[in-house]
């Protein structure tokens, strides 16, 4: 009754760990949630007020998205990229995850996934019956692929079309891609389609975020939304901006949208207009300031002779590698940590790494972002004492992991 390809899949790793954490919490245990990547900050109050004002909106909106919202998004991205987008290039969906799924369904060819990659890229390619190829990366290159590694895969099947997923800042590594120009040369040489997943771009710790779009605009689909910088993951609103030269892709996705989600929730689309029109600089500045301080605290205090990792560059993830041989794979190690320490982590094997490598994803967001935000300003020096005060569970988790690994 069930297709074999679907039988082979399991629940999304990130959602599964969130549900598992809630079960443990409901048993009365204190769990430290380093597994689920969700913004700790509240949705800006001005946007919440817009949602309240538009709760009465009940009509189906255009499949591609509310015209006024698409216009706001195109202006927002035009300013960010110093490029002239128009609203016809924008498609709005119930989160970028759904739009990526429709893109997988519409695309025919080979999918290129850097290891590590976000947990849903691979399952979606399987469902869409597109062959996926892992591209090996290294910590020295911020866990992003080198041009020659991409080309090596393409030359094995040069007659195929290719879709490259590039997520910067990256989930799960927290790193920013710095060899975009090099990658873009291969993109242009072989006319590769690139999905630039920029969902964490507003949370880049360096002020000068650069997108691969700037190097090869005709080949890049921009993906972004409200879930990370706006703290509105549960609102489920994302968007794609598709190059004019790839307009057939947009048309196909629109057809698929009409047969699946029809249109994004009306009140949320109306409320989202203010997310792109209003100035949220102070909110974003505070978010980045807190995330950078907390991330660097975890990095400084967890990195040792037993644990190696790169310093965080954006978003809210770190990717520690435990240098021990006690466990057979990273999943078993994460289960051990959850059972004995009540700390939820995700194994690196969920993101494309060999399961024998003791790599995990650590999301340092288990704190009350609302309270933290209210107690700092742009001049506040967020030192260790403030982190201990406003992110105590993060501190507790780091101490537990450090003590645990020293005893292995």
Under CATH at level 1, the class of the largest domain stands as Alpha Beta
CATH topology of the largest domain: Aspartate Aminotransferase, domain 2
Mean pLDDT: 94
Distance between the termini: 46 Å
Taken in chain order, the helices and strands follow as HHEHHEHEHEHEHEEEHHHEEEHEEEHHH
* Residue share in β-strands: 5-15%
How is the main sheet built?
A: 7 strands, mixed
CATH architecture term of the largest domain: 3-Layer(aba) Sandwich
Give the radius of gyration: 21 Å
Number of alpha- plus pi-helical segments? 15
Q: Strands of the largest sheet, in order across it?
A: 2-8-7-6-5-3-4
Global morphology: globular
Spans of at least 5 consecutive residues with low confidence: none
Number of domains: 2
Structural class: alpha/beta
Which percent range fits the helix content?
Answer: 40-55%
User: How many DSSP-defined strands?
Assistant: 14
* Full CATH superfamily name of the largest domain: Type I PLP-dependent aspartate aminotransferase-like (Major domain)
Task: Give the assembly state of these chains.
Answer: single chain
